[in-house]
């Protein structure tokens, strides 16, 4: 997927969608748990308990992937708005530009692509002193917008100065404060 497809412009700002992940492991764990019952292996309580555990964990993994896929990140004039319709305990979060204190780009491995990197936004919600971290997929255009609108500067000695070129020599964490 290219970044141009993932970012949509509307009348209020840019909207980025969450990245889809492979749900194969989640489905495989649920199927493995369900097959225990169809194969008649659930005559021992411990085996049945493990089967139910596999089904529940597979369902939770699947639900987590659905949350990641359905989350949107909207850049407006006032704030970065994170909306997640499937996260019932917190449908959305608005981060005013003046409350964003730090942006970290986490590169997971050497010779990384955009899928191997992640953004960590650290902000202080209005009226509190508690720092909150929001982890989102890496989009170079989104990172540029956050840094520009929040007035962040690259940390001294940071090996990453442009968002369109992820460092290829090693993994690491690059910060803007």
Task: Please tell me the overall pLDDT.
Answer: 89
Distance between the termini: 30 Å
Task: Tell me the overall shape.
Answer: elongated
Q: What is the string of helix and strand elements? A: HEEHHEEEEEEHE
Alpha carbon gyration radius:
20 Å
Offer a quick outline of the entry.
Helix content is 32%, strand content 27%. It is α+β, with helices and mostly antiparallel strands and 177 residues long. The radius of gyration is 20 Å and the shape is elongated.
Describe this structure in words.
By secondary structure, the protein is an alpha+beta fold. It contains four helices and nine strands; from the N terminus they run αββααββββββαβ. The strands form two sheets. The protein has a five-stranded antiparallel β-sheet. α2 packs antiparallel against α3. The N terminus is likely disordered.
């Amino acid at each position: 997927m290219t970044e141009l497809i993932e970012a949509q412009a509307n009348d209020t700002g840019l909207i980025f969608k969450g990245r889809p992940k492979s749900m194969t492991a989640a489905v495989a764990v649920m199927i493995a748990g369900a097959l225990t019952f169809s194969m008649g292996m659930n005559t021992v309580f411990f085996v049945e308990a493990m089967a139910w555990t596999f089904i529940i964990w597979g369902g939770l993994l699947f639900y987590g992937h659905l949350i990641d896929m359905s989350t949107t990140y909207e850049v407006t004039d006032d704030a970065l708005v994170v909306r997640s319709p499937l996260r019932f305990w917190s449908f959305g979060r608005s981060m005013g530009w003046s409350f964003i204190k730090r942006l970290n780009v986490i590169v997971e491995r050497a010779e990384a692509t955009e899928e191997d990197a992640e953004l960590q936004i650290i902000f202080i919600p209005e009226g509190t002193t508690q720092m909150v971290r929001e982890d989102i997929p890496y989009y170079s255009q989104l990172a540029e917008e956050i840094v520009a609108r929040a007035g962040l500067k690259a940390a001294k000695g940071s090996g990453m100065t442009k968002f369109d070129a992820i460092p290829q020599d090693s993994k690491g964490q690059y910060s803007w404060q």
